[in-house]
Write a structure and sequence with these properties.
Blueprint: H1 2-15, E1 18-22, E2 25-30, E3 33-39, E4 44-48, E5 51-60, E6 64-66, H2 74-85, E7 89-96, E8 101-106, H3 107-110, E9 117-119, H4 120-126, E10 128-130, H5 134-143
Amino acid sequence: MEEFIENLAVQLRLSGQGVLLKQNVLWINYGGKVFPKKGAPVDFLGVVKGIPVALECKETTSDRIQLTESHFSEKEKTFLKDFEKAGGKAFLIFAFWKYNAVYLVRYKKFLLFNKKSITNEEAGKFGEKIDLNSKNFYSKILRV
């Protein structure tokens, strides 16, 4: 998913429509599982047509994306909330590869969701389906 956003960032920059920067995170392997040790609280930060944006990407090849602390940390949630409070637009991008579906969900709208995982259908109710071309993406960001 992040590679798609990085490619989109190049398209946005070349077209003069925006700048998105991938945030760096140091990952560690502990007990056979990989965890973020330190780094940025979200995957991408930038500006699209003058609007500050923060993006956190979640993806799966199965039927649902886990939203437990180990998959969607309090650090990420707090940053997205604070980013919106400061005047930016914060988004979650949910990719369900099994269904070839990607959704852009405004974080303040996502706060109404209170389950420990989200399905493709539920993400569709909270967000807008996107096809990850630059014009489609920034038009959705401006509208949502």
